[in-house]
Amino acid sequence: MRDLSSGSLRFVPEAAYNLPGMIPGPGLIAGGVPGWVMRTASGVVADWHADWGNNRYWFDGTEYPTIATFFTAFGTTFARSGSVATFVGSNKLIQTTSGNDVPRLTHDPATGAGLGFLTEPARTNRIADSEEVGGASWFGGVNVDITANDTTAPDGTSTADRIDEDTTNGEHKIGIGFPALASDAVAGSFFVKDAGRGFMRISLTDGATFALVTFVDMTDGTFVDTIGEAGDWTNTYQHIVPWDDGWHRVTLGGNIANNRTISFDFSPSTDGTTINYQGVADTPGLYIWGVQGEAQATGLFSTSYISTSGGTITRAAESAVSTFADTPNIPFKGWSTTAGTMVAQWRQRDVEDTVLKYVYICQDAGDDDDESVLCQINLNDIKAGTTDGGTGSLIEITDSAAFNTSVRSALSWVVNNTAHVVDAATVTVDDAATIPVCTRMFWGNSSGADVPLAAPITEHAYFNTNVSDSELDTLSTLV
């Protein structure tokens, strides 16, 4: 099916990357190609390769050691106007960017492994005192004692507060409120660590009578039960992300039907079902830090942590766009309507939201998604392919990737033909595709009003040639 005579195949010396049996040919790249650069099973080297997870980049025959030098060479403009943002460093601690327009490379908070380039929509933490449990903006605690700054928080500072039950026979809890408008997508998140109690209950109450309630086993970071839809709440969800040093980030959320002040409450529990009991002074407790309340028109997911003290804080939306020429045979950066292959891997973060998000989109200069080559996600549906003049040739693949797992897509095209595969499954072909003219590419966002990806892109590479189905399948294998 694949016409390997189309495009421009390039070969590199065998010694450059130790592929046995490779025969050097014309178009050798001076200085060789690093072994980590993506290539097909037959030895065709990617024209450019952004290995975001390891912060290394290949473009125009040159290896770039940082995202800043790569973006400069690649003609990429990154923006996050007026605000800094947080990310997880390789040391597994939450860190803050050095400036407003500094891109983020984030890491797995449990292992420190690189996850890649993160772009997120504008979000506000509506919790006024995110690191001061029981502070001025919090509701008064009920049958609890709070010890401020009692242990090391996920950012490495001694700012995590401890909650201990007192000896009262009843419920022990503390909470804080934040506003939400009708139809808002609400996400309440926080970091928790066990301090001897073992279990806790979390609830998001709509200010009336209906609450999202669930219990967490803090010893292993799992939910004891599953929240359901009640009253004003629809499209509810819950997630836990394991963190280093026994911490976990817990998120509850859903759509709220009416204007409400959301009450975000935390209660120790003896067994994962009971919240009314005779308290034991001093010994069993839990640590809480980094409480975040997000409520906006779209986006059923929580985003990276936004620290607050005495008021709400907004992180601006992020964008990354690169420009290039639509000339079929320009090597490396050049775009070809004749043939090409795109490979991208990302960490799945949003599996509930119906709003389209782009891993990448290559389009013309008219701010028009009607002419594009793209990879987009919607729930667990991953679409990749082309649109031209509003006529879509998107190949949709339903992937069962769970929250916080990696997904890899490979798309290859030649005139009137595209092929798409996800995670080395079955290659799906469209024999009626039209390849549009494209002069720029967006990473993790688009030119329209679409929500940024809100998940890290681990790897992205482009070949200025199409590949066979078997090679495409291999390129889509998770790494």
Q: What order do the helices and strands come in, and which of them pair?
A:
Elements: H1 14-17, E1 48-51, E2 56-59, E3 62-64, H2 67-74, E4 76-79, E5 86-88, E6 94-96, E7 104-107, E8 114-118, E9 123-125, E10 144-151, E11 160-165, E12 169-171, E13 174-180, E14 185-194, E15 199-205, E16 211-217, E17 222-223, E18 233-242, E19 248-256, E20 260-269, E21 276-278, E22 285-296, E23 313-315, E24 319-323, E25 339-347, E26 357-363, E27 372-378, E28 381-388, E29 391-398, E30 406-414, E31 417-422, E32 428-430, E33 440-443, E34 456-463, H3 469-475
Structural write-up:
With 479 residues, the protein is mainly beta. It folds into two domains: 14-80 and 318-475, Jelly Rolls, CATH 2.60.120.200; 123-315, Jelly Rolls, CATH 2.60.120.260. The protein has helices spanning 14-17, 67-74, 469-475, and strands at 48-51, 56-59, 62-64, 76-79, 86-88, 94-96, 104-107, 114-118, 123-125, 144-151, 160-165, 169-171, 174-180, 185-194, 199-205, 211-217, 222-223, 233-242, 248-256, 260-269, 276-278, 285-296, 313-315, 319-323, 339-347, 357-363, 372-378, 381-388, 391-398, 406-414, 417-422, 428-430, 440-443, 456-463.
Summarize the structure.
By secondary structure, this protein is mainly β. Helices cover 4% and strands 43% of the residues.
Indicate the overall shape: elongated
Major pleated sheet: 10 strands, antiparallel
Number of helices: 3
- Proportion of residues in β-strands: 35-45%
According to DSSP, the number of beta strands is 34
Low-confidence stretches: 1-31, 326-332
Question: Which structural class should the secondary elements be placed in?
Answer: mainly beta
Assembly level: single chain
Proportion of residues in helical segments: under 10%
Mean pLDDT: 86
Overall structural domain count: 2
Q: What is the radius of gyration? A: 25 Å
- In CATH, the architecture of the largest domain is Sandwich
Euclidean distance between termini CA atoms: 26 Å
CATH topology of the largest domain: Jelly Rolls
CATH class of the largest domain: Mainly Beta
